[in-house]
Amino acid sequence: MTNQYYDVIFAGAGVMGCAIATHLLQRDNQLKIALIEKDLTYRYSSTVLSDGNSRVQFNVKENIQMSLYALEVLKTFAEDMTVAGEVPDVAFRQQGNLFLTDEAGRAEVEAGLALQQSLGCNVSWLTPSEAKEIYPLLNVADGLFVGATFGRDDGTMLPQAVLEAYKKKAVALGAELIEAEVTAVHHQNGQVTGVQLKSGEVLQAGIVVNSAGAWGTQLAKTCGVEIPMEPVMRQVYIVETAVQPEKVLPLLLLPSGTYIIHEGHGVFMTAHSFADDPITTTDFSWQRHKFEDRIWPELAEFMPAFDSLRVVDGWAGLYAVNTFDGNAILGEWPELRGFYLVNGFSGHGFQQCHAVGRYLAECILGQPPTLDLSIFSPRRILENAPVFENKQKII
Ligand SMILES: Cc1cc2nc3c(=O)[nH]c(=O)nc-3n(C[C@H](O)[C@H](O)[C@H](O)COP(=O)(O)OP(=O)(O)OC[C@H]3O[C@@H](n4cnc5c(N)ncnc54)[C@H](O)[C@@H]3O)c2cc1C
After folding, report:
1. How far is the CA of 215 from the centre of ligand 1 (A)?
2. CA pair distance 89, 94, nearest whole angstrom
């Protein structure tokens, strides 16, 4: 470490910290920025354990706009993020997202669809038989769903490649990447003054960004800030089936919230967020029986060909669940100057990193936002004004 004073310190260098740092330095390359990451292997970081899916199928306008911006960014991402001739390849695969709905969810889905279409999203309504044309494995005989929305531009990519690209770009632009754990955020007279590391060392800064992902609740507590956010363990399973689709199928979301992503040939990735998923920051074990008992029967009902399959792998990662309203918490905490939150993404943050990166950089620099995301301001927590996405469970 060459410098003890920074303009901005990031506690956590996942995709959020790195994207914001990149946007800051692209606007002002004189800034002294420290990206502090406790584990540069990123073994437990949510970004690398995520499914890497991006969708425009949201119900809150700003969430849709963030995903539309992501689509724009991804068009030139490789070129824009090239560092010293190294061109990142995030393998963006726009296989589309097919979201099935039952009668109970239909009105909400239709309202979301109308909003998405009004914003220019490439999403349309499909009848069950039209959905089956796109997803031939579906059982349409038993009335399990009344229709579907198909987002043709949605897709999946390699989240770690996006993270690495932003990290390398931020470092190339001048950010200092430090492997260390932040143990406390220091403040005085209502103003952030820096951070303490596990080594005991203190780094000074007038701005500290809580980019610690699912560990952010704990970090915020060290400066007296209570964020309504819980780290919740989510399990993902890889299954091998006997089906051999001719081409890659869209991501399929069932009305219950179970989703399944075709990886190619007979291999699929699947998951479901259960109300009793454990709250933890240390347990990353996954249990095959949870899939077998609680997900498999439903998959086989919707897709009879899944009656026979094999679980070949799995993992657990953490959702930073915003228990207040399930949406991002973005911006300066109103009661502590210089303490910026980028938290609570509740399982849909990866796709938002580009828009959040730009927005937080603009907030920190006091610039007018290109896309106003103040609807997600932390102030709404203090004012008890939640922003709910929808009633239905969604990825
Ligand atoms: C199973 C799963 C599937 C998902 N699928 C999707 C998806 O398809 N699409 C989507 O948009 N989102 C998805 N998400 C959500 C997405 O992964 C997150 O919203 C996003 O990656 C959050 O990025 P982050 O930088 O805030 O967090 P992280 O990637 O977790 O980064 C935070 C970093 O902070 C570090 N850190 C923590 N505490 C400290 C400290 N005290 N000092 C220093 N460093 C610290 C951590 O080591 C970590 O590297 C999924 C998440 C999971 C778990």
Report:
1. 9
2. 14
- Distance, in Å, from the CA atom of 176 to the CA atom of 37, rounded to the nearest integer, reads 11
Q: What DSSP element (H or E) covers 19? A: helix 15-27
Q: Quick one: pLDDT at residue 4?
A: 86
17: part of which helix (H) or strand (E)? helix 15-27
Q: Which atom of ligand 1 is nearest to the CA of 17?
A: 25
Instruction: Give the integer Cα–Cα distance in Å for 252 and 256.
Output: 11
**Which residue's alpha carbon is nearest to atom 26 within ligand 1?**
213
Helices (H) and strands (E) in the chain — how many of each? 12, 18
Q: What CA dihedral angle connects 96, 101, 105 and 111, to 10 degrees?
A: 40
Query: Does some domain include residue 387?
Result: no
CA distances from 335 to 126, 219, 233, 332 (A): 48, 16, 30, 8
Ligand 1 closest atom vs CA 234: 1
Indicate whether residue 10 lines ligand 1 (CB < 6 A). Answer: no
Question: For ligand 1, what atom is nearest to the CA of residue 183?
Answer: 41
Q: How many domains does the chain have?
A: 2
Task: Tell me the pLDDT of the chain averaged across its residues.
Answer: 96
Give which of 190, 222, 218, 220 is closest to 206, Cα–Cα: 190
- Which CATH number does the domain housing residue 302 bear? 3.30.9.10
- Whether residues 14 and 73 fall in one domain: yes
| Distance from the Cα of residue 247 to its chain's centroid | 27
Please tell me whether residues 182 and 39 are part of one structural domain: yes
Non-local (6+) Cβ contacts of 84 within 8 A are 172
Q: Give dist(CA 285, CA 280) in Å, integer.
A: 11
Within-domain flag for 105: yes
pLDDT digit string, tens, across residues 251-296: 999 999 999 999 999 999 999 999 999 999 999 999 999 999 999 9
Look up the domain containing 50 and give its range.
5-84+158-228+323-382
**65's tokens:** 């706009």
323-332 residue pLDDT tens:
999 999 999 9
Question: 329 and 365 share a domain?
Answer: yes
CA of 310 relative to ligand 1 center, distance in Å:
28
The verdict on 162 and 308 lying in the same domain is no
Q: Are residues 317 and 256 in the same domain?
A: yes
CA distance 371 to 351: 15
What is the reported pLDDT for 251? 98
Residues 153-174: what's their mean pLDDT?
98
Note the pLDDT of residue 391: 62
pLDDT over 70 at 204, yes or no: yes
